[in-house]
Amino acid sequence: MPILAIARHQLLLMERDTRLRWLCLALLMLAVASLVTGAARQQAQTAERQAAAVTDEEIWDALGPVNPHGAAHTGRNLYAPLSPLAAFDPGLSNYLGISVRAEAHTRNPARDRPMEGGTSITRFAGFSPAWALQVVVPLLIILSGFTIFSGERACERLRQELGAGASGPALMFGRFIGLGTAAIGLLGIFMAAGIVALLSIGAPADAFLALLAMGGGYALYLLVHAGLTVSISALLPSARSALVVLLGLWACTTLLLPRIAPAMAERLYPTPSAPAFENAVTDEAKNGISGHDPYDARLNAVKADLMQQHGVTRIEDLPFNFEGVALQFGEGNTSETYNRHYEALFATYHRQNQTQRLFSLISPTLAMIPWSRAMAGTDVAAHRLFLHDAEKYRFALIQALNDDIRRNKPKDGGIYRTDVSALAEGVRFTPRLVITADAWRDQAPSLAILAVWLAACLAFARWAATRLERRA
Amino acid sequence: MSMLLPIIGHELRRLRRDRALPWLMLLFMAFAAYGAWSGAEWAAARMQAGQVVANEADTIVALKRRQLAEAKPGANMFFATPQVTPFRPILSPGVMAPLSIGQAEAYPYAARTQPLSDITMFDAFRADLDNPAVRAAGRFDLAFVIIVMLPLLLLAGSFDLWSRERERSVAALILSQPVPITSLLAGKALARALALLPPAIIVTLGALLLVGADDPGGLIATALTVGAYGLFWILVATLINVFAKRSTDAALAGGAVWLLIVVLGPALALATADILSPAPSQVQFANEYRAASLAIRRDQRLAREANGPEVIRTPASNIPDRIRVFMAERAVEDAKLAPMVATHDDALARRHAILDRLRLFLPAVATQDALDRIAGSDADRALSFQQQAMGFKQELERWLADRLDRDLLMTSQDYDLVPKFHFQEPAAGPFQAKMLIDLVVLFIACLLLGAAIILGRSAATDL
Amino acid sequence: MLTATGLSKQYGAHTALNDLHLNVQPGEIYCLLGANGAGKSTTIKLFLGLLRPTAGAAIVDGIDVARDPRAARGRMLYIPEMVALYDELTGMENLAYFASLSQVPDRSPARLRQCLADAGLQPAAFDQRVGDFSKGMRQKVGIALALAKDARALLLDEPTSGLDPKASAEFHELLNRQRDRGAAILMATHDLFRAREVGTSIGLMRAGRLRRTLTAASVTTQDLEALYLEEMAGD
Fold first, then answer.
1. What 3-state DSSP class applies to A269?
2. What is the ipTM of this complex?
3. What CATH number is attached to the domain comprising C174?
4. Neighbour-count burial of B139, counting CB atoms closer than 10 A to its CB (0-12 exposed, 13-18 middle, 19+ buried)
5. Same-domain pairing of C118 and C106
6. Distance from B73 to chain A by nearest Cα, in Å?
7. If you measure CA to CA, which chain C residue comes closest to B9?
8. Same domain for C173 and C71?
9. Per-residue pLDDT tens digits for A282-300
């Protein structure tokens, strides 16, 4: 098999290149360092959130006998669960709030984003094993492969190789396999480090599955770069121009487009500012979706309905505390309004992400990033799951408190107080992590796009191979 | 030194013939224009968000005015009690904001407050709803173009300033002339500085002017920063050329140094700082503050209840006495919580000092810092806003105390006379001390590179 | 004009040049013959001050090159096998640049054109980009520089290898003219025939040593070839 012999030869050449060996070693050290720092940080964050949840529980338990609606205003703080793979690919986690304040009348957005409160250096944050695989390893592939067919020495060698009877495609795919094998080998070391990190924190089996799926995506992504590198090297006889073209492509696809695409997407589908969002919700809760359906009128209709049902003419004569009913009705109203607005907001995020996916047709990095984040559980979908669980808990808690008010009519105009801690006992906050299968379904198009990229690169390489023979 | 001028002239002539450079400059121009535009868009959106918040106060006051106008004589006028007057301190972006979004998104830019609010008045502005993917990707503002792209432009224009001659054996002919290698390298570096930096500065300033960022001091400071950072990169290219004998080696070294200085160095320094000296936990502090506050308020309520039901004086005052009690209780609470807040603030300040010091060793970070400060999007300005808003709250407390003493309900025209929040710029404009330190950092980095070039000069004559 | 006294260059354990003594007078063409690695190029680089001698001295017009390379370079011109110029500049622009590096007092276009013409370059080529120049044309630009700076010594490293016979003959004619105006010329070459034709003296080098010095007029080409082969065969 001449192809395999050529591939072995390519691997041998790269192994002998001391410069390359040092670069790989430096990269691995950086990746391991970032994985270790990431894992340490993750441990600290997990401890921080657990401690905060405990404190919040204590605060709630220490409230003692209080008015349930007062307690609903005191509220509870809910903390986002950390995905075990966040140290491998932090994704959006530094830019998403980690806590949600669950209180009456409002569905708060998540707060306490880890990137808050920094200084100018904070803009440079973001080195992680995932970033190394997305940006630095492609650069390494380019550096180790741009002279495969270009440059004077390679041209001389090419003539001899073709003269010795090798065909252009055999040379092309042999070199591709050699370069690709080296890239996959490097990826293997990253994956092994990831497995060790997962084992050390006792991660569930699903996390290993996610890491494997993530690794599959990276394998496609790195092979795309290996294919591009050998093809361009075959097309451009001058080493200098091959390097310039490859570096230009690299800078555009891994550095520029990933910044421009989200900004463009946001421009196409703008998101409201937080105050504008809040004011819109408040306005709609008060005046109805149509703007001509005032809340007071709706509440009065409920009141009239209830009085008619119970055959009473005075609100005080109802067998329950109407204030509780009003609170329940109000909470239902605001919650529904908030949910509608949040759904619209998430739909906007979704459209933005779809737009970004379009850009992945010109930059494989833009297909790689969402796939990696989804598998790591550090994307918007994972955050949304937390927000959803938090809202479910909030609504259940507040309505339980309101229901208690409804059931307990205060005597002679006094203030009703009760032990809310016991009341909230039945309502528990159990946040879930995204299941890998769900993430897979959600992001399958990204993986498909990567596969299409690889197929296109191989076709490109095949075409470049014919030029290779003509060039010699 | 007499050698320098012909060398510079010759190099400039060569650069003029370089066909790639105009295209690269055009590309830089396009990126700079896009960066400035997106920065300006951001500033406009922030301005608008601030306006929405400011309007909230106007809406509430308008409602109160209507209630005042419609109130029947002798009606309960609780809505007109002064402690529920709304205030909205806002931090507006500065004139030069399109230059850099910097840390402006990492701090609250407004507060919803009443005279008796507490530190949670900023909470609503700690949350944003824009797609987090945009922030995670990093903003494509002019600062990004300057810090990340400009070095690439400069390296592209100068990565082979001597290695090319060495590779093509012109170097032997040049070195066999009576010209010292230092003059040669200096001439080449200066020619590139002259050919590349003024256009880059003009493009940057032009982009800023185009989007209306026209503060003269800010523009001069920007020009100085871009010039110093650009010079740093040309010296980096020169130093690489002292050692690299082949252009591809020089290109690889340039790329590696770029990756190290612009990306990896700062990221790793930050990761190390995060582990050695982590930021004080915001959630832990918020919880402790809340727990302490609730405990104080419970004790206060119990004490109040032990005193029996509220006594209404006759004739009844305009403002119920329980408001005065409430205010006194809040003062006690604030005083009790002050040490806890101070401890947290100190921890934050220590952390800031550490992060701030890191930039002394990282030229890219120093440049970012300088641009942030010129743009007014630096952490110090945002923190100063928080302090000033807290100070304003104290002014409101004094104002409230006075009205409570005099038992004065609000009238329609009183709302025009309430204290107003005016943000005082914390530093002396673009040329503030810390920005000058950034420039000094860049200057020292240039000096060190210059020294390294001179010390290593004999390597440049090694063919 | 060009004098080497005990000139030696050592790279670690390897001796590139060993105790070279030689003297090239004005109006003399000294040809160094030897196989690759004999030390010819090392000698030239030592005279140019591109290498520092391990022992001995290279002296140009009374100036120790190692002490004051700049002053020495002001009196010399170096022409390598392939005169490498800036391809994107014209012949005139290249000459002007190198003349300015050499601080030639009169760098007026008229004078530089005269030098190019004297070096035998066709006037049509003066303002053409050097990228299109043949090897011979490039060497003419080199000679023009020697004329412009009025170099008293010329150091040539394999100047005619790869030139066609006509160009080679032209080049040696140019060299003779340089010699006639009193320049001292040191030329490393493989070309026995030309060395005997144009050379005044001939040195045979092997393994870093100057084995034998001959007067060109005293030997025939056949003698020279026999001697060369005898020397190269070694002990």
1. coil
2. 0.88
3. 3.40.50.300
4. buried
5. yes
6. 26
7. C97
8. yes
9. 888 888 877 777 888 888 8
